[in-house]
Write a structure and sequence with these properties.
The chain is an all-alpha fold. The protein is built from 14 helices and no strands.
């Protein structure tokens, strides 16, 4: 199980790092490739769009295949696409390659979440899932600095380094990733063809009454979570006068809290009932976010956010565990839907949070919105019975 945890951590760390590579490079990419700065956001969005489009199709298909094979093939494609981004010399070529990279990531990365429940005893699933969670968390913390430092040499270097590491990781996966016996017998193409099979897969998944509640609860949580993540930097600049460097250090401190939570989460899971741990986490969230906007200085704000994100890192694997418990045969579908739901929450947060930050004084608009989202998510988790064990 230790080998599975380590390899899962490394896979998710590399994929997560790739996700955050482009953001700090946008100014220099705009200058060297000669496209308007306002168009730079397309390079970030194209990755997410590629991921979501492919995930909805790949998820059910992967339930009919050997997950280990799908993981390795998908990760190899992701590595090659990342390296290819380093050779791009024009905006539209890079945009297309980032779309392809997101598509390839959607093939491999969800298999990690689906494989763990397939190989690990039920009582240890959440603890092992803390490893890929920590990988994603640390990539959030380090992805932007890695992109910044490596791009000082050239804009190609970040893609070559991360893609090269991913190619080496493909070899490691082939040699060391645990065997997964046979395909998961979930989606079977029938008389209605591939489209009908896909539709049938989702129909069967959501015939379970808990599925709608679980995914809606997760969507509400991620909407609140991303509303906070997206606009923290703006608040730090406007509310406390932080420079870009100061914001970077503040966000890194918060990221350390998230990483600490992900690393200590398995210890807590081994000693606490998982449902009670989720409930406690939500209570801490809501209580601290209720006073966050009252922060009188950046130290107080960072301290409160450090604790909330530490809690987030600790209980996030429990969300994945609950979602994976919905089915034994469609875990690839659940994994991809989980990621699509996360991106949907990010999109909603950006749409709603921007106007709230502009209209409501201070950070109150965002914090109240986050509290509402988290409270609604908690109510749905509770109503679905996810907090009982």
């Amino acid at each position: 199980m230790k080998r599975l945890a380590i390899l899962s951590f490394l896979v998710m760390f590399l994929i997560g790092t790739d996700t955050f590579l482009v953001s700090p490079m946008l100014p220099v990419l705009s200058s060297t490739m000669g496209f308007p700065a306002a168009r730079g956001g397309w390079l970030v969005s194209s990755y997410a769009i590629g991921y979501c489009i492919a995930a909805l199709i790949v998820g059910p298909i992967s339930d009919r295949l050997n997950r280990r094979t799908v993981l390795i093939v998908g990760f190899a494609m992701f590595a090659c696409a990342t390296v290819a981004c380093g050779f791009a010399r024009g905006f539209w070529v890079l945009l297309t390659l980032r779309l392809v990279t997101g598509l390839c990531a959607s093939i491999g990365s969800p298999q990690i979440w689906a494989i763990i429940p397939q190989l690990v005893p039920k009582e240890r699933v959440a603890a092992i899932m803390a490893a890929p969670t920590a990988g994603l968390t640390m990539s959030t913390l380090l992805g932007v600095p890695i992109g910044s430092f490596l791009s000082a040499t050239s804009t190609s270097m970040p893609f070559f380094v991360v893609g090269g590491c991913a190619l080496l990781m493909v070899v490691v996966l082939v040699l060391a990733f645990p065997a997964v016996t046979g395909p998961a017998k979930g989606v079977v193409a029938g008389a209605h063809g591939p489209v009908g099979a896909l539709a049938d897969s989702y129909r069967r998944l959501f015939s379970n009454a808990r599925s709608t509640r679980y995914f809606l609860a997760y969507l509400l949580f991620q909407t609140g979570n991303f509303a906070m993540m997206t606009f923290i930097a703006t608040w730090f600049a406007k509310g406390f006068g932080l420079s870009q460097v100061g914001i970077g250090w503040a966000v890194m401190i918060i990221g350390v809290g998230n990483t600490l939570g992900a690393l200590t989460g398995p210890w807590a899971m081994a000693r606490l009932a998982h449902g009670r741990m989720m409930l406690a986490g939500f209570c801490v969230y809501i209580a601290l976010y209720a006073v966050l906007a009252l922060s009188v200085n950046i130290i107080m704000a960072c301290a409160l956010l450090f604790v909330t994100y530490m809690v987030s890192g600790a209980i996030f694997p429990l969300f994945i565990e609950r979602l994976q418990s919905l089915t034994l045969t469609q875990r690839g579908t659940v994994s991809t839907l989980t990621n699509v739901t996360m991106y949907a929450g990010s999109t909603l947060a950006g749409i709603v949070g921007g106007p709230l930050l502009a209209v409501v004084p201070g950070f109150w608009g965002i914090t109240v919105f986050v509290i509402v989202m988290l409270s609604a998510s908690l109510a749905l988790w509770a109503r679905s019975g996810a907090l009982h064990d």
